[in-house]
Amino acid sequence: MANLVIVGTQWGDEGKGKIVDLLAEDADFVIRFQGGNNAGHTMVVEGEQIISHLVPSGILQGKTCVIGNGLVVDPAVLLEEIDYLSTKGVDCHPGKIVISERAQVIMPYHKMIDTGREKLKGKNKIGTTGRGIGPAYEDKATRRGIRMVDLIDREVFEEKLNAILPDKNNYLANFLNEETADGDAILDLYQGYAQRLKPYLTDVSVVLANAMRARQQLLFEGAQGTHLDIDHGTYPFVTSSNTVSGNACCGAGVGPKAIDAVVGIVKAYTTRVGAGPFTAELFDDIGDYIQEKGAEFGATTGRRRRCGWLDTVILNNSVRLNGLTGLAITKLDVLGGLKELKICTAYDCQGKTIDTFPSSLKVLGACQPVYETLPGWQEDISAIRRFDDLPANVRNYLKRVEELSGVPVMIISVGPGREQTIVLDNPLT
Ligand code: IMP
């Protein structure tokens, strides 16, 4: 029995959804532990693309999918997603999906504040997904949040809503110059959600403890990426939760000894959506080539992703922060057709070469990438299924990533389909 955490090593969008969907075959439970519907997990099964935002990617494999206490959940989005997946014939009944009673609820005013703040910030905006994630976590930290368990108790819900709403409306109207939220309408709407969500709610920590006692395998699915972590990322251009592997324990209610392995998902190049520093970013034809060939548009907001070379300064930051035991390299096929490839192995910071990730955005902003150049490959590798059949330059690229990171490559993805994968070592088998 092994329990595995999957995390993104860059700024999200590494292709975690596909790898989780694939590895879920050997898991019993797939568990989200942080974030909310700012995430977008893309899976392609038999040519059909399915994107989930809240329901863990294991749902297509028929595994028990868990929404942990560490999430902020928009009930409307979750129910819409359950309906959408159900129309596709996916079993989304209570018991197949379980939701922590302790998860925080995203309220309409969270979304209104999120978008209102971004508007007010103008060019200094963070570029959030506008889903109310930050304002919901803010209320959690100030102990004014509404949890799932409160949502299903009308009296408690009404009391909490009435206590917080004047404050939120005052802020919306008088600081952000936005419309206010209507308490009665929220009450009606959310009571409808409560009715439907009630059968899904449970104490997730107890469910997972029982599962481990029964020697079932847990797969924890991280959302976003390590450099969007609220503590370790490029603050303030980050999301509002801890995205690193350690949070799998807090966000699902398991102890640290429950985790046996941590696989970091590494896109073969780097992308970022939203604002914030990105040292290895490309502003030339190669960046456009990668963006187009990789179809680099956000799964949640449809925004064009910024593209750049692979950066092992950030990869090694992720290796250390997450305790990575293996790597999954995704979208390797996208790099095909380029004469040369570069890997950013260090930063030139005002004449000083550094290989650790600076905390200060001012220092980071002044860093220039130090590149190593490798030969590219012209072959289309998307139909290759065996490591030994990969062109020599592809194998060299992978070997160099292993050398620079000190972590073995376990999985190689050469296309969006489940079958377009080379598994060298599966931590769950
Ligand atoms: P928020 O999570 O909506 O508050 O957005 C904060 C930052 O995280 C913005 O730069 C977003 O673009 C980024 N972000 C949030 N979720 C994701 C994701 O799933 N993939 C990539 N970027 C994300």
Index terms:
single chain, 429 residues, Adenylosuccinate Synthetase, subunit A, domain 2, Adenylosuccinate Synthetase, Chain A, domain 3, ten-stranded mixed sheet, four-stranded mixed sheet, 13 helices, 20 strands, binds inosinic acid
Number of domains: 3
**Which ligands does the model contain, each kind named once?**
inosinic acid
- Examine the coordinates and then state which fold CATH places here, giving the name of the CATH topology of the largest domain: Adenylosuccinate Synthetase, Chain A, domain 1
Instruction: Look at the structure and give the CATH class of the largest domain.
Output: Alpha Beta
What helical percentage do the residues reach?
A: 25-40%
User: Structural class of the secondary structure composition?
Assistant: alpha/beta
% residues in beta strands: 15-25%
Sheet with the most strands, sense and barrel status? 10 strands, mixed
CATH architecture of the largest domain: 3-Layer(aba) Sandwich
Task: Using the CA coordinates, give the radius of gyration.
Answer: 22 Å
Mean residue pLDDT: 96
Shape estimate: globular
Our count of helices gives: 13
